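Bit of a strange request maybe. I'm writing a small parser for structure token strings and I need a real example to test against, not something I typed by hand. Could someone generate the tokens for this chain?
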Amino acid sequence: MLKYRPEIDGLRAMAVLPVIFFHAGVDAFAGGYVGVDIFFVISGFLITSIICSELNEKSFSILSFYERRARRILPALFVVLAVTSVAAVSVMLPYELKNYGQVLLGTIFFVSNMVLWKQSGYFAGDAEMNPLLHTWSLGIEEQYYLFFPLALLLIWRFRARWVFSVLLIVTVVSLGLAEWASTRMPSANFYLLPTRVWELMVGGLLALWLVHHQQPSRMWAEAISFLGLVLIGIGIFAFSAGTPFPSFYALIPVVGAAAIILAATPQTLAGRLLAWKPLVWVGLISYSAYLWHQPLLAFARIMAPDNHPPVPLMIALGMLSLVLAWITWKFVEQPFRNKARFNRVWIFKASAAGSMVAIVAGLALVMTNGLLNFYSVQERAIVGKTNIEFSKYVVSDYNRLEGRTVDESKDTVIIVGDSFSQDFYNMAKEAGAFADYERATLYIPARCQLFYGKSFADIEHHINPGDRAMCKRSILNAGDVANIRKADVIIFAARWEPWAAVMMGETLKAMQIPEESEVLVVGTKAFEKNRHVLLQIYRTEGPDSRRLPDEEFLETNSLLKASVGDIPFVDILSGFCMEGCPLFADDGTPVSYDGAHLTEPGAELIGRYLFARPPLNHYML
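Reply from user aminoacidic:
Good idea to test on real output. This should exercise your parser:
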């Protein structure tokens, strides 16, 4: 049997507390998400140790393995899901409830990581407001444990000496895949098993190594375990949301966790620190704390008018999750692990019953579009569609023209920029503008911004580290500019960052656009983004409500206008929003569904306004 090691519970505390503080928005814990990676290493180590011990004793049973997993995972999960679902129905809007129902179903089938990956597509919205966001890691673990025991059993029986080598190969391949995917498909890389499995495998490799080796001697144990603490600290306090992850960077916290498991003993400083009773207590309740913290923080964000509750409140809710975790650990986790109290048959029957209730609830939320019929017909235009459903309109026509080579023999308009250029394309389309022009588009991600004439090295400090590799491939290049120069009308529209706005005049000069070409620059825009607030405004003030844009967006437009000089400038905020931005279109649909991008009625409303006035009116028939 595996000997109890309090320092591993202390390590669990070092995993869960940074995750809580990270999700609470505490800036110092910008890399707190690495706590999940520490959990993966611990889980891989403990489960592999138990399986190997039972295989050596010829007592391993697949049925017993899954019984242990059910006792460990499901009781607390069902309690949290039940409470969270009641709260979700009480405070979430239909489009949010529909997404919630999908993730609830994914959680029960342990594929929520895949559901969240799909939901994290174009303009998916603020993930932090999803109460079940954190269940992606449960999906990873349970998918891993679906095949790992069977694979280990098979290899053990036929070629036991190959086990370590096979796990090592899988680890190296998975790590390499994670590094490759970190800048090419970051969402899939984050959420899916193939690029995460190596973290669990590191724990498994450590367990196999310790089967035949002793822990390091005192001096080496002291150094290795202390190094482990340092590496974990680097991950927690030096990483950020911009760090490509998981990637080779993830080796830092993963190796740190493995070093502590390997070398931390009661004789080492790290071992004594991690065995400190308050840390051990947090470690014991860490699973339930992990389950509780995200729903509390997500609901706080949903209910805050600007979706950003004060950090002290978020920290208090994080601490509340520890209280709820202790109650859950004491009265749910512990009793259900008692085989004398609840036998195997009872556990499996209860698991099936709990799963069925959650499946019915999830299906009900999905099939009713998040209980949409409880809202009036007018309100459904505000609360019915998810951001992803709205975003399909934003991208569809524009994307069909993306990359089209401009034909110099025809009058052509090219629209260049990020998702705001897609919005502008839709405004023009809804207004019936450019009817006699061939149309082309060129997409540059907002994270990379529009600039030309400077090397990437000159501007990369403006770009998040996690986006730099992608942006180096995606920024305007000489071939793009050569194509742009062929167009008769060139329109630049983007979600401008101040640094790019200030540089736009230099960018235009560097492009050397022919004098006969007409160039226009479109400023940024912003609307009310919280649909809970939009619904309240609609109910209290009616469909003619307006709101003034934030000063920061007006300032960005001022910088942009000054930079481009005499180039015709389209300022939506100072024109269309002069007396406040209209929040609703003629049919009651929000002008913007996320505070930035336009609905179809919103694009029609703004398009009619812009193309009836200079400098755009002469592009109408």
